[in-house]
Recover the amino acids of this structure.
């Protein structure tokens, strides 16, 4: 049963992280490889602020959200918009964005590495402390509960936003056919900025939560999550909100089960083997829709 | 010169193996197959060649030959299984393949040297042999870019339906991409391990894919010349940047980002444009001096220096334009 | 310029005196190798290169090691052990990448001015450098790099003891605490920790006649340890062994406490250097053996600590102490060789290594198979700082 707690909390971390990547990828067609860097840099910024002053949980989370959103908007304006303006077709734009993201990601990473010398940093200067609770024989921490609640709430909110709101409709329209959407009067640039800001805010939020729950991370921590988030999104099917949640919890479950049932070292092989198999059976992810074209 | 060569030997060797690695990912991309399996083949190649030399005392060339055949076969099998996947789903499946290879390397116990990896792989592999193998591989790849084969490859990438209607067996081409990618990846890995004498699980991870992609995208994704430019730049750049000291990583990131933003067709594309432009200006000037009509790139005549000429020149700059417009149609299954 | 010349002449006089004194001691030590060291054998400056990561993932260790080298070389140059010859240290950065490390090693080999180099702290970089250096005959001393394939011949040396060689000094702690079973978590991210986790600790348990209740190998990419922790705790061990790198030590301590485990945790030196600070009170009671701690009592260690504090204004880490001893070992070998020739230095290192010496890492240090052997110390993290529990006897 304690393992179930592990699965749910780990899955929620993956979900929160992957959610931000998923909404930009599924709508405005940006697979943002700088997402991990934004995640890390938000937590890093919060730890810098905490060196100066003591703050509680909410202000620290807000710092993470603000830094994440700001950084993502900056990346969008300075890198991705420029690439899209110059690219000659969609396929090469996709590749340029991938590489541009990788290049941009190095910048915050280098700053954090330089400042910390790759030593771990944490948020222990915050007045908020992580505490264990006992719920019917199961041990959970307050930050774990918060992570799960926020992940599910934000996931639901994002799904509703995309499904119901006018902006969401416009975004999905872009995802299906950008040209037609533009003809229908969708302001692509503004929507893209809003989406990137939301995505960055989620990265920042998950960065701070993750750092609280692990105690400390290093400048490189974001990179590891990037590959896993990529896997979660693909597993569920790009553009599907249900899919990303499914992918996150399935990956977490696979990892936890293998880690606890074997001596551990084959975890990655089995979880990636699983992804491989799922793709063979469902070539567009489990909840992937055929009409969303990806080349 | 030989002094320069001996003190930069490692960089020269890395450039060659980096080039072949970049090609192993560029070749499938050029056929429209979004596969990163080349990086996994590189890992298999490095370990296989290392093990053959270290544990079974094979000679360098035999080890390389066996390895390349092996990775080509693995490429074929992998291709047969996953070639129905498309786009980034295919990319993910191949990334999964690559990462599984690293996990196997860590868990291989005695055979793969666990997290230490293999070391002390010393052979009679010479620089001449390495250059010869690289040039041979490069020549084969270059041949696939010109003439009839080159045009077919372009069509398979840009419009698989058109290709199929022209009687090209698209599936066979896509499968070939996996085989070639496997062989090239295996060659790169095998050569690298034989000159570097060591390989560890960390050398064959996700970073390898990133490096190869960076080389291709910044260098130029449509030609082996682009891969060559990328391999030279990204092998030597970090070394040149060490003079900057502590902020070198930052500068590296800025350079990659700027190159990706400003050079949509890669550095090779820029050079190509520059060369065409220079050639045309020269010809125009000569023609102007004679006062006659200007002979165009494609042999057509065009009137001197007017708006139509400028437009025609621009059109000539972008030979891929027609195909690209076709490719932006919905492609259904592709 | 003139001033400089004058100073140099005065130094030369001093040098003669010091050399005479030193030769006397060397003779007492029974080494007659130093006899060949005539003043004209050594060039005015001897170039050394430190090929270490100063940027990238392992920069923290590389930078600390470089500080140790610089301090030692400054002292050596002031001491005139080398009869007026000056050691000149160039720092090159490997950017934490094996390929760059191999490239820099090749550059150093090709530069005939370079007499010897200090090799990288990272195993992955070191095993890429060693075959080249051994094959082409350039002496190298590594620190940290603890895997196989680093020391491959007489040209390659390592001034850091293998963790598996001193880890068993923890036996005393385990006995004192009366533990009768251990649950083990270790990472396969580094060869050293993998070896200690999968071989040294089980061997130690067997020697002590205690039980290993669970042993979990955690892949390098896992960042959240709650699942393996609950797994280990379910097996109900008396104490937990957690062998992880850097930041992971913080996570594992915090999550162990959250999971209700209150006992001590046996760790490794990856938790030192203040890495546990972010864990706050949860980090308390992690106990680990290490080759050096600034509180250790040996006279030679304390002399180093004082010099280091005076120079850099902080307490030295083990990386700096190892580097310091490496530099002095090399300098003594160069003095004994009486020449900056690479092969002569190598031969002198071989004979020097037969003697024990006192250094930053402790007293009575010796070499075994090209790797230094030290007594080691056991430290405990109090939640705020490192507390020295006891020092090894050198018999482990």
């Amino acid at each position: 049963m304690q393992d179930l707690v592990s699965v749910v909390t780990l899955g929620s971390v993956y979900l929160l992280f992957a959610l931000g990547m998923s909404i930009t990828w599924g709508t405005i067609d940006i697979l943002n490889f700088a997402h991990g860097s934004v995640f890390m840099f938000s937590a890093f910024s919060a730890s810098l602020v905490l060196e100066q002053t003591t703050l509680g949980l909410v202000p620290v989370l807000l710092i993470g959200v603000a830094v994440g959103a700001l950084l993502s908007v900056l990346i969008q304006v300075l890198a991705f918009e420029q690439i899209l303006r110059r690219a000659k077709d969609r396929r090469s734009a996709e590749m340029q964005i991938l590489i541009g993201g990788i290049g941009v990601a190095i910048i915050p990473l280098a700053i954090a590495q330089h400042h910390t010398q790759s030593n771990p940093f944490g948020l222990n200067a915050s007045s908020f402390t992580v505490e264990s609770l006992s719920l019917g024989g199961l041990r959970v921490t307050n930050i774990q509960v918060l992570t799960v609640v926020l992940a599910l709430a934000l996931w639901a909110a994002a799904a509703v936003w995309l499904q119901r709101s006018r902006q969401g409709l416009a975004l999905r329209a872009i995802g299906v056919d950008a040209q037609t959407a533009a003809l229908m009067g969708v302001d692509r640039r503004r929507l893209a900025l809003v989406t990137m800001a939301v995505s960055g805010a989620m990265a920042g939020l998950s960065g701070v939560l993750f750092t609280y729950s692990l105690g400390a991370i290093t400048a490189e921590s974001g990179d590891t999550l990037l590959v896993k988030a990529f896997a979660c999104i693909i597993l569920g099917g790009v553009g599907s909100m249900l899919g990303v949640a499914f992918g996150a919890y399935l990956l977490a479950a696979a990892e936890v089960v293998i880690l606890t049932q074997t001596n551990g070292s084959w975890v990655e092989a089995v979880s990636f083997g699983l992804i491989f198999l799922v793709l063979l059976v469902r070539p567009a992810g489990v909840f992937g829709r055929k009409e969303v074209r990806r080349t | 010169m030989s002094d320069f060569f001996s003190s930069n030997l490692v960089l020269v060797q890395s450039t060659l193996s980096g080039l072949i690695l970049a090609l192993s990912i560029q070749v499938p991309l050029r056929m429209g197959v979004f596969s990163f399996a080349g990086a996994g083949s590189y890992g298999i190649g490095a370990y296989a060649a290392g093990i053959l030399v270290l544990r079974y005392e094979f000679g360098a060339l035999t080890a390389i030959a066996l390895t390349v055949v092996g990775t080509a076969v693995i490429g074929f099998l992998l291709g047969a299984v996953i070639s129905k996947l498309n786009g980034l789903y295919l990319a993910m499946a191949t990334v999964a393949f690559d990462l599984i290879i690293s996990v196997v390397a860590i868990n291989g116990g005695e055979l793969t040297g666990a997290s230490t990896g293999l070391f002390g792989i010393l052979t009679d592999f010479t620089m001449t042999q390495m250059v010869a193998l690289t040039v041979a591989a490069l020549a084969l790849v270059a041949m696939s870019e010109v003439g009839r084969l080159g045009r077919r490859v372009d069509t398979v990438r840009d419009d698989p339906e058109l290709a199929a209607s022209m009687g090209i067996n698209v599936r066979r081409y896509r499968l070939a991409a996996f085989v070639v990618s496997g062989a090239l990846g295996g060659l790169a890995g095998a050569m690298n391990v034989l000159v570097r004498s060591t390989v560890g699980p960390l050398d064959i991870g996700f970073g390898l894919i990133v490096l190869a992609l960076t080389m291709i995208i910044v260098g130029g994704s449509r030609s082996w010349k682009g891969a060559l430019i990328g391999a030279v730049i990204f092998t030597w750049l970090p070394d040149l940047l060490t003079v900057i000291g502590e902020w070198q990583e930052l500068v590296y990131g800025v350079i990659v980002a700027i190159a990706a933003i400003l050079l949509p067709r890669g550095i090779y594309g820029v050079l190509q444009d520059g060369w065409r432009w220079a050639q045309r200006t020269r010809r125009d000037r000569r023609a102007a001096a004679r006062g006659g009509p200007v002979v165009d790139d494609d042999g057509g005549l065009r009137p001197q220096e007017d708006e139509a000429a400028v437009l025609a020149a621009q059109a000539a700059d972008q030979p891929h334009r027609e195909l690209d417009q076709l490719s932006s149609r919905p492609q259904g299954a592709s | 310029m003139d001033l400089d010349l004058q100073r140099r002449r005065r130094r030369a006089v001093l040098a003669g005196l010091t050399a005479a004194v030193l030769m006397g001691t060397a003779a007492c030590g029974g080494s007659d190798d130093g006899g060949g060291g005539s003043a004209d054998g050594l060039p005015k400056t001897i170039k050394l290169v430190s090929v270490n990561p100063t940027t990238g993932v392992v920069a923290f260790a590389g930078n600390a090691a470089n500080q140790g080298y610089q301090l030692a070389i400054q002292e050596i140059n002031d001491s005139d052990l080398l009869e007026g010859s000056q050691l000149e240290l160039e720092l090159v950065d490997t950017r934490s990448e094996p390929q760059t490390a191999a490239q820099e090693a090749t550059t150093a080999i090709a530069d005939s001015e370079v007499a010897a180099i200090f090799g990288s702290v990272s195993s992955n970089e070191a095993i890429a450098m060693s075959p080249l250096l051994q094959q082409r005959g350039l002496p190298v001393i590594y620190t940290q790099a603890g895997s196989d394939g680093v020391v491959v011949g007489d040209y390659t040396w390592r001034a850091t003891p293998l963790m598996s060689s001193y880890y068993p000094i923890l036996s005393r702690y385990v006995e004192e605490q009366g533990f009768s079973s251990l649950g083990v978590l270790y990472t396969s991210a580094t060869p050293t920790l993998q070896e200690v986790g999968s071989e040294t600790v089980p061997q130690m348990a067997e020697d002590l006649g205690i039980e290993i209740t669970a042993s979990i190998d955690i892949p390098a990419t896992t960042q959240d340890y709650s699942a393996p922790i609950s797994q280990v705790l379910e097996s109900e061990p008396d104490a937990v062994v957690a062998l992880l790198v850097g930041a992971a030590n913080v996570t594992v301590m915090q999550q162990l406490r959250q999971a209700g485990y209150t006992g001590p945790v046996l760790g490794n030196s990856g938790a030192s250097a203040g890495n546990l600070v972010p864990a706050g009170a949860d980090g308390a009671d992690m106990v680990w053996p290490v080759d050096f701690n600034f509180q250790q009592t040996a006279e030679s260690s304390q002399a180093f600590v004082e010099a280091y504090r005076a120079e850099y204004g902080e307490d030295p880490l083990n990386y700096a102490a190892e580097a310091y001893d490496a530099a002095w070992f090399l300098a003594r070998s160069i003095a004994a060789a009486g020449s900056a020739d690479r092969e002569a230095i190598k031969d002198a290192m071989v004979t020097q290594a037969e003697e024990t010496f006192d250094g930053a890492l402790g007293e009575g240090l010796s070499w075994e198979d090209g790797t230094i052997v030290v007594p080691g110390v056991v430290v405990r993290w109090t939640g705020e700082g490192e507390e020295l529990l006891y020092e090894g006897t050198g018999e482990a």
Q: What stands out?
A: Chain C has twelve helices and 15 strands. Confidence is low (pLDDT under 50) at residues 1-39 of chain C.
